[in-house]
Design brief:
The complex is a heterodimer of chains A (213) and B (210). Chain A is 55% helix and 12% strand. Chain A has 213 residues and is α/β, with parallel strands linked by helices. Classes of the chains: A alpha/beta (213), B alpha/beta (210).
Chain lengths: 213, 210
Amino acid sequence: MKGSIIAFEGIDGSGKSSQAKLLKDWLDSRVDAYLTEWNSSDWIHEVIKEAKKKNLLTPLTFSLIHATDFADRYERLILPMYRTGFVVVSDRYYYTAYARDSVRGVSLEWVKKLYSYAPKPDVTFFIRVTPEVALSRLKESKRGIKPQEAGADVFPDLDPEEGFLKYQGMILEIYDKLAEEEGFVVLEGNRSPREIQMDIRRKVGELLWKERS
Amino acid sequence: MEGKIIALEGSEGSGRTYHVSSLKAYLEEQGYGVVTFGLGMSRLMGEPISKKKRDIVFQRRTLFLAYVTDLADQIENEVKPMVKAGFLAIADGYTSTLKAWGLTRGLEEDWMNYVLSALPVANLSLGLVSTPREIMRRILRKKGVLDPLSSGIDICINGELFSSYETYLNTFQDNLRKVMQDGVIVDTSRSFEVVKAEIANLVGERIEKA
């Protein structure tokens, strides 16, 4: 039995992580489900954190080290789960690398090839909000903008808010292009989390249960 | 790049490290400035790889990408600037060593070539080979033992965890059936309740007979 991969994409502050968690909780009582997050391999994650702190990464090594992180999670967790029939909910998938690496000047074609061994998700939810909306949400939550959310390595001279708007704007542009090419399910993110989750569950229900019956 | 990269490629024990240092000494005598780099030697990935290698030896793609990251870090932060300044760079293991390692473990050649196309091609590459007996003798001389992981014992299994486990389980269960020819085999792939009832039944029958 082959499993499914359900991916969530969107700019920082779009609410996709909360939506992915809600979906995983909902799936838990129905199927074997597993949630995996971007940049969370237990050993590479630490290396990336240190490297970002010390500003060691170039666009190429930024790309490669995140690909290593993904490969580690893929070989150890995602692939065995997928092959044994789990529903794998992926908070960010290789589309995040497509967007973040190409914003840093790495060739999109090369990045696509880098991840070409991994299967395309059965469905990719793109929670779409503008950088302005995402920024106002971050401000409300009072947790401050992290340097990587402001693309501090790409725009070292901008203040965090300006950097956030510019960097996330560029990421959004790529997502919009990918949405069409890759057939994302685009969800208007400027609604209540509950409304968005209902859309997601309906779609996932169709995918998992209607196809099989 | 204006200067040159010279790559010495080969397995552990092929004489790579030894010849890198003697070549470096020779070129320095000739008046060249020389930097050395190589597989597993980056500031970014060197230590994490050596610490983690044993745990991820069966994750070929991860290890391959970790080494590409390792090389890219050295190329971008050390080799490129030095070579631009006129130095010669000698690699103790570069892209061909990595590719041979991947091919031996079933990684796709096209994929590896594409990923490695992000790194500069060496201006001169030397592949170092020797007889297996000689290579192993060198390793024994240096380290005292043959490391099972370096011996490529990992390539006896399948490409990834799932297939390997599947093969293992099939073999194990075939053998279990064989050794239990006179016993009873219960298929637990059915629902728990059905299996539970069947086991209760089987045990009940046999207890009474006994």
